[in-house]
Amino acid sequence: MIVNYSSSSSEDETENSSKNDSSPSRKRGKLDNESSNSEPLDHGYVKSKTGKSAHLTPRLPLPESVREMFGESEEKWTDKRDEHGGRMRSFQHERGNWATYMFFPYDPEEAFLEVLNEMMVVAAAHGIPLALSEEFHLSLSKTVVLRHHWIQPFIQSIRTGVTHFQKFFCLADKLMVYSNAEKTSSCRTFLGLEISTGKTQLLELIKILDQTMKEFNLSTFYKDPSFHISLAWCVGDHTESLKKACLSELQSLIDAHEDGPFHIRLNCTELRCKTGNKVFLFTLQ
Among this protein's residues, is 137 annotated catalytic? Predict the structure, then answer.
């Protein structure tokens, strides 16, 4: 779902609760405090007094439909790695948590896909099973976790920060190898094209986005970022083998393209924020 920030006000969620001394729960609390402390409270029965005599009345059983209402909250989520190529989440899933990140999208050209397919063939010939990225984009934040009721103020803060930011363009032309931080069985190796033009504007934009991250006590971007567009990935740490075996050969496919050196030109006109299954758009000036 793609949502423009200007029309997203309906997403606001408020959690207001009012309490006063006349509420049933408070009245019951007062009565309990006034009762004799030496007399134990029977949780299975309710005392009913008629004159000076008292008898025990059984409570009505809780309807089955009411008890089933809360069964879902006790379910545990299990990460099924085989459903997404062996990848593992970098943080534990929890109901109400929304994975969130900022990015510029890249809509691939036909020439880009042709070069990319050639690169996959070369990598496979060297025993490196690369898989194409599901989507191509330039990341401008780490993936952070937002609670649902934070989404609207978070989006509003981003919108305010980038209101006067001017659109620009980037060029990416140098292949780089990256790996995520976890050097475990869930580690992944990425092949990406590094940005060579547009770094100054990207760094200025990161400063604005980091202000919002700090406001919500979330992780800011890397101190010395290598801005890039991820092309493909594989499970495990194959950084050294990919660099030694075929990185130069893959770079030659880009530099010796039949129509001249192939560069990705990324028009940075629309910043996006993906949170959960929603995408918010911010059009730059």
Answer: yes
